[in-house]
Amino acid sequence: MSEKVVRGVFDSPEEEYARKNGLKFVHDRVLVARTRSEYDGGYESRIYYLCFKDSGQPYIRKEVFTPGISAGSSMGGEFNEDLPMDFLVDCDLEKFSDEFPLRCYEQILNNKEIAELIRKWNLRYKASKG
Known about the structure:
Layout: E1 5-8, H1 13-20, E2 24-27, E3 30-39, E4 42-52, E5 58-67, E6 74-82, H2 93-97, H3 105-109, H4 112-128
Parallel strand pairs: 1-2
Antiparallel strand pairs: 3-4, 4-5, 5-6
């Protein structure tokens, strides 16, 4: 198999292209939740994604943004937390939500894209194990 990686969602033209051309397919990142905390004098926004390395290993990406104290400045950063390779195996939205702050819970339970990714991941995993 080639070292090139094609990214997309399951059952997409990108996945079909990768399969037909002997390329590795890795699922694209998926938005999990957004949060915003207001505090005296400012706020902090966070965006959480489920991402996948070229190896297929899942990880959580957290992007944090908060405005600075002077005009035009901002603070924050991007943080990644690796998950086990088999994290999505037999996973459901409840288990998945355990990896995120409680205030993301409702967004996760209502996230159809995450639910579909987990469902298809498990169908493929079970099919690969025969």
